[in-house]
Design brief:
Blueprint (H helix, E strand, L loop, with lengths): L3 H16 L12 E6 L6 E3 L15 H4 L3 E3 L7 E3 L29 E4 L3 E9 L6 E11 L4 E12 L8 E13 L3 E15 L29 E15 L19 E20 L17 E20 L5 E21 L6 E21 L3 E13 L5 E10 L8 E11 L3 H4 E3 L4 E3 L5 E12 L4 E11 L2 E3 L5 E3 L3 E15 L2 E12 L10 E15 L4 E14 L6 E3 L4 E3 L11 E10 L2 E8 L11 E3 L2 E2 L4 E10 L2
Antiparallel strand pairs: 1-2, 1-5, 3-4, 6-7, 6-35, 7-8, 8-9, 9-10, 10-11, 11-12, 12-13, 13-14, 14-15, 15-16, 16-17, 17-18, 18-21, 19-20, 21-22, 22-25, 23-24, 25-26, 26-27, 27-28, 28-31, 29-30, 31-32, 32-35, 33-34
């Protein structure tokens, strides 16, 4: 990204203008509403536009999904969530499950409604030119009228890496349109995702970290291999909702009780998605792989999954102005999948292209009840009637109790689910130059229960989760899928709390986890992220403006455990019991500043590298970056 210097100059120039113009527009109120859709695409769920100051140096999108993540060194590379209950287990997302936090897919659509055009630019940069690590994000949204809005988001993650052959180049784009009328609503979202990663296979000798610079540390897949992974995903989501008959609830509260007692909605949900993953290596006989089924001089693996999903549903609800509100819905869905891959063949030529089509027919249901403004319960489920996943089912329930009134009162959630589902298609059938398998796995039966207490005014959240799993299925130490025949239980407690005294703050996130069988699934007992900082607000009498600053230190730490290893050929993390990761504190010093619509940060990441040992691994063989200076700037426009 050679334009970084002009870009920084431009942003700093406008930031300086903003400092001296704060008094003039301080009275302007910019109301921006952002939301996503529930898993069944029937209800809007408000989300944070994320333009606040907060801890700006936490710039990674992956941390928004889950605060604790493990990765192979660079931001932009495959990641898995340390919190077991934050992991994605949906079979259709298998090929990009370790990248989904970077991507725009039908499972995480974003929509906005704003009175004035909204634009945000975020840029971060770290390292010298030959090891540059940078991100760029631009998003824009504006309304055509009070009902119709369109917007776009473009994310770039580009990192050359501190270690050899570790480059990442991620480009993810989404375009969205929403229309919110009285009788008719529609939501459209399109995603274009391209992720390119060089694969170095990890370092060969851990002791080299003590004497060599990162770029000189020997890696397993070097210049002869030039191994790389290319992941492409394109998708479209279209949700249309129509309320036949009366236009709906009158906005005038005086007439609310005269509105229809029962309202009905017809909804059509259309999703089309295509994902392709390729893996290439110019030197398959380097010794990194055990076999070469197709070609011993060059590896080119290709897997593709395409799907078309249609759901038609009818939902109803009673008048929301009444204290007792009942609602529900039923829907029928049809899914078509097309899987293709290059598989080994015992005949000549030694490879063939496998094409397979599958379908699913499923039934969905929903029932909810609001009792006043502070109590709600909801139950939902789906049952696959025919097709590849015939007999699969999932049922979920939730009770939400709010205490008091206001925009964000304390709340208590109790939730649970039980399911019986087939693993991903790719765990049954796989063919490539280095791996092949055909499995006959049983369905995975899982029961989850959890509770969450949130007190926003006290900056306090506590969440507890428990799961019992039969036939747990994942990748074993031999890097191929296996299914555990017995039961497995997992328990966790997550606590978030911020303490404040005078201008001193301590923001804490603590995760405690326990698993019943460490050989099948190992998790760190304790994972902690804590930031202590000093906050001061500088005021300018001349302009009547101010600059808010925060300076402090952050620590990330987890106790030792057998963390997942990574297989670049299949692109998945797998169990291992040879190397313990963790038990290492990663420290970052930071300075954040907010100039109204401009936010900047300076950070010295992992400043303790080399001072507290060399065991800075989250994934065996893949060391984290050493001491790095990073800066970032975010600029928001409302015009």
């Amino acid at each position: 990204m050679p334009v970084r210097i002009p870009l920084i100059i431009i942003l700093l120039f406008y930031a300086a203008i903003d400092v001296f113009s704060q008094a003039g527009d301080s009275a302007v109120v910019h109301k921006t509403r952002q939301w996503t859709l529930t898993d069944d695409y029937t209800t809007e769920t408000l989300t944070d536009p994320d333009t606040s100051f907060a801890l700006l140096h936490r710039y990674r999108k992956t941390d928004k999904l889950s605060p604790f993540n493990a990765f192979t060194g660079n931001y932009g590379q495959p990641v898995y969530q340390i919190n077991f209950f934050d992991r994605i287990n949906d079979p259709p997302r298998f090929l990009y499950r370790h990248y989904h936090a970077y991507m725009f897919t039908p499972y995480n659509p974003v929509f906005m409604n704003t009175r004035v055009p909204f634009t945000e630019i975020v840029f971060t940069y770290a390292g010298p030119r030959e090891m540059a690590d940078q991100t760029f994000r631009i998003r824009h949204s504006q309304n055509v009228n009070r009902f119709l809005n369109f917007g776009l988001i473009y994310d770039i993650v580009n990192s050359l890496g501190q270690y050899s052959y570790q480059k990442t180049d991620n480009k993810n784009f989404t375009f969205h349109i929403s229309y919110s009328g009285e009788k008719y609503k529609f939501y459209f979202s399109a995603g274009l995702n391209t992720i390119l990663n060089n694969e170095n296979g990890g370092i060969t000798d851990v002791t080299q970290l003590q004497s060599f610079e990162p770029r000189d540390v020997e890696v397993k897949l070097g210049s002869l291999s030039r191994a790389r992974t290319l992941l492409k995903n394109n998708n479209i989501l279209l949700v249309q909702r129509y309320a036949p008959g009366n236009a709906g609830i009158n906005r005038d509260s005086l007439k609310a009780n005269n509105s229809p007692y029962l309202r009905g909605f017809l909804t059509h949900i259309f999703i089309i998605e295509g994902t392709r993953r390729t893996y290439s290596d110019n030197y398959p006989m380097s010794g990194f792989y055990d076999t070469a089924y197709i070609n011993s001089t060059e590896t080119y693996d290709s897997l593709s999954e395409r799907s078309i999903k249609n759901t038609l549903r009818f939902d109803f609800s009673t008048n929301p102005a009444r204290k007792f509100r009942l609602g529900g819905g039923v829907g029928i869905g049809h899914e078509i999948f097309r899987y293709s891959q290059i598989i080994p063949s015992e005949l000549s030529p030694p490879s063939d292209t496998s094409l397979r089509k599958e379908y699913n027919l499923l039934l969905k249901g929903l029932l909810f009840n609001d009792i006043g403004d502070n109590l709600r319960w909801k139950a939902s489920g789906q049952l696959f009637l025919a097709g590849f996943r015939a007999g699969d089912f999932r049922a979920e329930g939730e009770i939400i109790k709010k205490f008091g009134k206001g925009a964000d009162p304390p709340s208590w959630n109790i939730y649970g689910s039980f399911s019986s589902e087939k693993p991903s298609y790719w765990l049954y059938y796989w063919g490539s130059n280095h791996f092949k398998w055909e499995n006959d796995f049983l369905k995975i039966f899982r029961v989850d229960a959890g509770t969450k207490l949130s007190v926003p005014s006290r900056h306090f959240i506590i969440r507890g989760d428990y799961a019992i799993i039969d036939n747990y299925t994942w990748f074993g130490p031999d890097t191929v899928p296996y299914q555990h025949g017995g039961g497995l239980s997992v328990a966790s407690v997550m606590i978030q709390k911020e303490f404040s005294a005078w201008r001193l703050h301590l923001s804490n996130q603590l995760l405690i986890q326990k698993t019943s069988n460490r050989e099948v699934l190992d998790l760190p007992l304790i994972t902690l992220r804590s930031a202590g900082y000093f906050e001061h607000n500088f005021r300018f009498r001349l302009t009547k403006g101010s600059i808010n600053t925060r300076a402090g230190v952050e620590i990330f730490y987890n106790t030792g455990y057998f963390g997942y290893n990574y297989n670049p050929s299949t692109g998945v993390y797998f169990n291992q019991s040879a190397v313990t990761t963790g038990n290492y504190p990663m420290l970052t010093a930071f300075f954040n500043a907010s100039l109204k619509r401009t936010r900047i940060f300076l950070a010295l990441e992992h400043f303790n590298s080399g001072l507290t040992g060399y065991n800075y691994f989250m994934v065996p063989g893949y060391p984290l970056n050493i001491r790095t200076f990073r800066y970032g700037i975010a600029w928001t426009f409302y015009d």
